[in-house]
Amino acid sequence: MKSQQTGAISLRLTALCVAIVSGAAMAALFSMRYERNLFAEMWEGAKKSTQKTTEQLSRQINLQDVPGAASSEIVKCKVNGQWVYSNSGCKGSHVQKIEVHDTSGFDAPKTTPVAKLTPEQVRAKMMERAIDGPPAAGEQ
Known about the structure:
Elements: H1 11-33, H2 38-61, E1 74-79, E2 82-86, E3 95-98, H3 119-132
């Protein structure tokens, strides 16, 4: 008899996967019991930690105003070998002014106004459809 399993998934890996899934299920059940969402709380904590990291990185960049640049202008500059976009400017000799164009975004599709029908007209239309069958494509 072999001392180790020779398959695609070992018994230890299977036990580890089952333990992780059952732990997540237990956390979900406990959060439901106490009317808390532990997963959302963990997500908020992770977002806060990434926000702190972002703040630390922005302090390291040492942004400063470009002479003559308005606050609504966007500039592209090279900081520590990476291109950075900023509205307040930055240090360095590699500075390019970016022209920004406003767009209206996506427009909602235009719909044709639907005529209001009286209850008698609706009933007559329903009777007509019941007798004649459903209308063909494009008919109303």
